[in-house]
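Box S1 | Example of a co-folding query
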Amino acid sequence: MISNIKHQIKNIAIKITSPMFVLKLIKIKGKLSEFLKINPPFTLYIDVSNCALKCTLCPNGDNYPFEGPGRGKMSLTLFKRIVEKFVEENITVKLFAIGNWGEAMLNPEIHQIIHYAKTRSGFMRKGGKISVNTTLNNLPNPSDFLKSGVNEVRITISGMTQAIYSKYHKGGDIERVKSNILKLVEIRDSEKINYLNLKLVFLNFTYNKKDSELAEEFCRKHKLIFTPVDSRLLCVDCFIYFKNEKEKMSKMYNQFVDLLTLTSKSTTIDADNVEFCNLRWNYVTVNFDGQLFPCCGVFEKKHFLGSLFDFKIKDIPKIESKICKICATTPMNNSRDLIISKNPKVISG
Ligand code: SF4
Ligand code: SF4
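Box S1 (continued) | Returned holo structure for iron/sulfur cluster
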């Protein structure tokens, strides 16, 4: 009897944790939300400026022949229009992340943008967070920036010495970055901004282990959150390019990552399930000029879906995009995290 009950519990556990069950739940949740007119809280990614660096594995660098999302800055006026659209359509934002393919700190109005997002009632969900991704090579008005209400600053580095840092972060200056970090630390401590997380994201490459230890020590000393991340190819476009130009790109990648391990962990997603991609359902990604990306993983201009103002926000996940179909059949090392997949296929070589 007891073993029978145990067996039944085990069966239920297997069912409710299976990808198909999760898929069904998402479908039901979507339909129910539509029926009840409840809108889901989205993560909103916005680039407020282009980037000035040329990181090696990034499509902004010199190793890909892509036409990127362009160069420019989002005006405060355009940002306010975006916020008003969310408020009018009754969509609350759970996470507002600034900086995807661009450097947030190059926008001189960054603190006004954050302040507006933080204080406009009906825009952020209760308990929602504002996070900024930056290299911190620039830091205009550090005090205004930290007092804007930003909850998290994610500073990405790849070395603690210039020789190591500049191998990947081309055009960056680690001494300037460290000095800017210390300015933020000082303001955080003197103003007692307790709700602020300062995160140091350290990109692990094959050559920078010693600098990773130095970074960890630096974080301990200055009360930063040390976040080591295993490096990988950065965009959907990059994976597609790699698939077609394996030989040419392998030589370059091998200088940074263990390509064999990376590709052995790569998976493809089932093309039938691509409409359930998590990034389509729960994220909205906007370029500095208001153009919509299919998701934060896509880089090239030719994949823009149109202006954010051309659509109701709740209809954005339903927009068909050619790149999603190509993405579904392209091996990627992080697809398990991004995609709710029925049957990820592990590839080799
Ligand atoms: S990885 Fe980030 S900082 Fe480097 S070029 Fe790309 S967007 Fe800029
Ligand atoms: S299927 Fe691929 S390209 Fe489409 S939204 Fe998902 S991750 Fe992005």
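Residues 34-38, 339-349 have pLDDT under 50 and may be disordered. Residues 19-36 form the longest helix (18 residues).
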